[in-house]
Amino acid sequence: MIDLRAELERITPDWLTGVLRHSGAVSGDTTVTGFDHTRIGTGKLGDIVRFDLRWSGDHGEPGSAPSSVVGKFASTDPTSRQAGLMTGIYVREIRFFQELAGRVRMRIPQCHFADIDMDTGAFAVIMEDVRPARQGNQVAACSVDEAAVAMEQLALLHAGLWDAPDLDAHDWLTRRSADGGEALASIYGALVSSFLTQYADRLSDRAADAAERFTPKVAAWLCTDTAPLTLLHGDYRLENMLFGDGPGAPPLTTVDWQTVSVGAGPSDAAYFLGAGLHTEDRRTHERELLEIYRSGLVAQGVELAAEDCWSSYRVNAFAGLHMAVVASVLVGRSEAGDDMFLAMAERHAAHIEDLDSWALLD
In the 3-class helix/strand/coil scheme, how is 44-76 assigned residue by residue? Predict the structure, then answer.
């Protein structure tokens, strides 16, 4: 049994040695003799650190011991940490790795260790360092080809747990409409005025109007989830994607499992396509990209009619707007964070308008 070390200062070479031996990443007399660490990533609710490892001893085949691993810990920013505790996202990520990651067919990092102190919310995840790879950027958006890979991977995620009856047994998983949507609607209603004030000098009239108009309709949107449901990533955006950037690198690895939930699969697709592409690219290619997702499900044995997929996709154009409003107020602010949330709000507002998603809530 490996003890939980949830602060960077408590991570030692001996502890990392035990973690990697226990996970089967190395064997024999392999020992981590030291490491250098660097903070990486753009996570708002967790601190992410790369450990570059130094080894001694017999670690099996040449090159088999990882040259580095990534550690994720609760945020040291007080505002962000409180948001992580209040929303339960820290628990969800740990439980995902402990209980469901093995059933996910999409490419995710190998997890060597995941544990949490339920009293304080302090946690640690030690996982594979996916290299060489390039992190996506929501403001810059992605190419249509990259979006196609994201839709292929999303189909693999959803197919593995599509209509799985035992999802109800995981009580840490949120269900968006479990209480008629009242809790999430209340959170949105409490935060939308702060969002509008926070970005008053930068929001377009369209985005501001959409955020305000959505307030009395949040619960109705959340109740559009109907069976069959599946496991949602919940924050399927470019910053949570690592695109392979060299020979032998996987094309795409998806990270950040703090917002997993149960819901309608096309919601993740709408969340990604609505803001991951520049608006003109999305308008031109979203039908074909959504069909890549649906065809991927069918190839995995999931039955989903094209018209049902499109209808669910349209109504879930609101998913990204909801996240942009709520997360931008709950987490600590930064220039990069503001730019990202504004890009999401603007693109999702255009998405909602283009698809006439309002009509599905009236």
Answer: CCEEEEEEEEEEECCCCCCCCCCCEEEEEEECC
